[in-house]
Amino acid sequence: MNDKSELIISKIKKETILSLLRKNERIDNRGLEDYRKIQITTGLIGKANGSAIVKLGDTTVITGIKIQIDRPFPDTPDRGIQIVNAELIPLASPIFEPGPPGEDDVELSRVVDRGLRSAEIIKLDELVLIPGEKVWAVFVDIYALDYGGNMIDAAALASVSAILTTKYNKAIVENGEVKITDEQIPLPIGSIPVFVTIAKIGDKLIVDPSYEEELVMDARITFVIDENDNITGIQKGNPGTFTYGELIEAKNIAIRVSKKLREHLPPVHSE
Amino acid sequence: MTIYVRSKQVVIPGEPLARGRYEYQGPIYTVRQRLYSKVIGIVEVEDKKKITLIPLKGKYMPREGDVVIGKIVDIGLTGWTVDINSPYKAVLPVSEVLSRPTDAVKLDLSKILDIGDLIVAKILAFDYTRDPLLTIKESKLGKITKGTLVEITPVKIPRVIGKKGSMINLLKSMLNVELVIGKNGRILVVGDDPLMEAWAVMAIKKIEREAHIPGLTNRIKKFLSKVKRGK
Amino acid sequence: MNLKKPVKLLDENGLRTDGRRPDELRPLKIQVGLLKNADGSAYIELGKNKIIVAVYGPREAHPRHVVIPDRAIVRCRYHMAPFSVDERKSPGFSRREIELSKVIREALEPAIFIEEFPRTAIDIFIEVLEADGGTRTASITAASVALADAGIPLKDLVTATAIGKIEGKLVIDLNGLEDQYGEGDMPIAMMPSLGQITLLQADGRFSGEEFEEGLKMAINAIKKIYRVQKEALKRRYIEISKEVLESE
User: Fold this and answer.
1) Which candidate among A37, A145, A168, C240 keeps its CA 20 to 30 Å from the CA of B15?
2) Is the complex ipTM more than 0.85?
């Protein structure tokens, strides 16, 4: 960490957060199951096939999508490629260090990747041009711009929004040759996941922790929920614990909240 | 009020020991009047009232007043850095070595204590915020010049001493050796006969390995008689 | 994840590719204290998985800027040997290994009384020698035993297993084949005496009911694994006792 003092919350602030929570209230006046204000802007980056900037309270993150023809992985010759990379760059916060991706960056990339992959938001089996030789590769690149807590949900919202609004040139195969046409088409979309992160502070479960809430939380857990209320991913984080009962409650909250969160997503194949 | 364990039982971290208001000693923690072990250890139950847990392994944590055996690992401008077999390196300032006031900068400290030298020292101060401070300015403290050093897990040191020093006295009288015991798991054996020193080391290792089994003093006595007869 | 399956993962009798029932664990062996240099160590065999764990510490923390004034820092390195998998793995750290090092550390740290060792480091080194599904959970199970073997004060051991979904059915302790071709994987770690869950991840697809049912199955299996951990830790001392008493 560049500056550890950013990671130490003042004792009075901590006590305020805790005493409010005991009355089921939060410092920014939200309910325990409320998200901060969400703002999604898609299609900002002309050179990208798809893009979205998400503002979630004080957190800002951008996802850009680039699509290109590539060789498939040897063990999946008949599937396209999905690559997710997330970077917590020092531009976004004094707590982020320059240099190669650390544990937090890698965890973020992999959690978003698994959530998207398990839901099959991108139907990779429809992105094959010549099996075993040429497939479409979809690169999902996430950059944190301003860190104000709950980066996972913000990054996932940005990535899902960008994927849903992505357009690329249709390719056709003629005599074993791939030809790119001028026709712009959307990605083949499967089910659409929504990420809901819940923090545990004391014995309270709260949705969408802010930066200050993250500094006092014991543990967090992210549930990825599809449109049929199935769970397509889970990631517990931080060195804290949950009881069985708390996990069941967290799961129910996540399913409930996912429906509201879903309303913010752009319509499929819009733009 | 229930006790879940017997005396001399080996317990592991998280193992419930008892429920209710019991006196306890050792690495035990409580949650809502339940007593749990924090470490692998041996339980002693006294009069169904008090539970003592003796750990079987663990690092040495410095305490003020402890006598330890240290190794000089670095020389600075005003003193030495000393490895005391603990997570914390100790500091030995010149002022705790020489009794006369001196200008440390002008001295060649390596002439007094050099890297690799062993010392018997006492912990003068330690509060976790700074590294432990040592002194060798008392009698029986200072540089070690002869003998054999043996290292055991520090939590077994009380067993090498024995009840009221019974084990030490046994080793001293049977082998004609002197023992300097560092609370940090290091023991110095000094004898006229190198063979006796070697036997003392064997006996100490045996104490370390078998400390959790009752009848230790008798076993060590038998063991020593046997090796001496074999001479 | 909907890859083409080479085999049926459940046969007509409801048995799995290695002959197990859905709620049956693979054969499990844990050995304690086999490394001389480490402060604590453990070796685990779970089915074909073979993993060795060493714990060093609490010891002086280096570099100095990682030091935390009021507690120990816990560091964890999970690594797979190049020969541990079918195709040689590059010996460098993959992104998977970086993430697993983090989640394993976060699964173990809640059990450690870190505030008893200010300004020190506790290092956990995990080397997967052979991998066949479930290495992260087997690593956690072994690492908590190694921490106990090091004499580090713990609230409880940490015990882990995974729930999976194959052919639409929940099963415990996925093997490599089931992990690769199943429909879901949900690793879970827990402090068994205290009922506190310290790791939970999932991929694939589970309904809300399957999630609850899976958690219960995992907690049952964890109790069985916990007995093996406990026995492994006590065995050494009991063996020395026996040896001594027999020689008398």
Assistant:
1) C240
2) yes
